[in-house]
Write a structure and sequence with these properties.
The chain has about 300 residues and is mostly helical. The protein has eleven helices and three strands.
Length: about 300
């Protein structure tokens, strides 16, 4: 295609939730409350894990890091989406779009890897309880976190190397609430079939393989749990349902969104909202409301803070 005859695109239009003014106000209030609750909840978890002496264990170390990634993943897309609800011209610069996709897949890839690390932690706690402390040392924990960040970086860079220099000279409308890789690639004014196949393999296979690894891990854990019975095992199992729920929701949405041919891909805004906003809030609720130890630690910290303030 002769790019000289077309104008170079400097920005994309995010359709988002376009429509009458009244529904957009309702969306603005709803999403603002959800995002505020997500940020507040994840910060509360991170603060509680950091300052509560009863939560200085590997499972809560991972939970604090998961909350950080959840909050970052939501922040990459949600503030922009919320502000767009109050504007008529819902645009994003091409470099802003690229940055959004970069950080989305960076934090998403890091979270997938961290969820695998959390499954390994539960495996060791339930299947090798006598060696738990020796295996899950501080060096191993920090190594898991570092590897999750490196994996997220490699995952997103493998896409950006091929997409950052794509020429955009024609349509510039992205029918979604944020810049999503499948929709943006299709706007390039060159043949992108090979790139689309690579993107499907990169995102889809990464999600599916990670999910299969987690399914195998939890299957082994459940089989082991049926063969044993002890107080320590019951304590370790108490956190397992929360992990399974988080994994199912996160990977279920990710696989449904990305592991499909590009020619049938549609920017489902409802799924996009669940993936970037609601999932993070659900993770926060699951790891607090269903975790009595976390709730007790939060109440203890709050009581200590109130008491210190009154004495001061």
């Amino acid at each position: 295609m002769d790019l000289k005859n077309g104008s170079v695109v400097a920005e994309f239009i995010l359709l988002g939730f376009s429509g009458p003014w009244e529904p957009q106000i309702s969306f603005f209030v709803t999403f603002s409350l959800i995002y505020g609750a997500t940020v507040l909840g994840n910060i509360l978890i991170m603060v509680t894990v950091t300052f509560s002496s009863t939560l200085h264990s590997p499972v809560y170390f991972f939970l604090g890091n998961l909350s950080l990634l959840d909050m970052c993943l939501s922040t990459v897309t949600t503030p922009k989406m919320i502000t767009d609800l109050l504007t008529q011209h819902k645009s994003v610069s091409i470099w802003g779009c690229m940055a959004q996709m970069f950080f989305m897949h960076y934090f998403g890839g890091a979270e997938m890897t961290l969820l695998i690390a959390m499954a390994f932690d539960r495996y060791v706690a339930i299947c090798k309880p006598l060696h738990y402390r020796a295996i899950m040392s501080h060096r191993v924990l920090n190594g898991f976190v570092i590897r999750s960040r490196i994996t997220g970086f490699i995952h997103t860079m493998s896409q950006k190397v091929l997409t950052v220099n794509l020429p955009f000279c024609g349509p510039r409308v992205v029918d979604n609430i944020f810049c999503d890789l499948p929709l943006v690639i299709k706007l390039a004014c060159i043949e992108t079939y090979t790139l689309e196949l690579f993107a499907i393999a990169d995102i889809g296979l990464f999600s599916i393989i990670s999910f299969i690894l987690l399914l195998v891990s939890y299957t082994v854990i459940l089989v082991t749990a049926q063969q044993r019975s002890s107080g320590g095992l019951s304590k370790a199992l108490s956190t397992l349902p929360a992990h399974i729920i988080v994994v199912t929701v996160f990977f279920g949405l990710c696989i449904f969104i990305y592991a499909q041919p590009f020619n049938s891909f549609a920017g489902n805004k409802t799924l996009a909202v669940f993936y970037t906003i609601v999932t993070s809030l659900l993770n926060t609720i699951i790891h607090t409301v269903r975790n009595q130890k976390m709730l007790r630690a939060m109440r203890k910290l709050w009581f200590h803070h109130v008491t210190s303030t009154q004495n001061f």
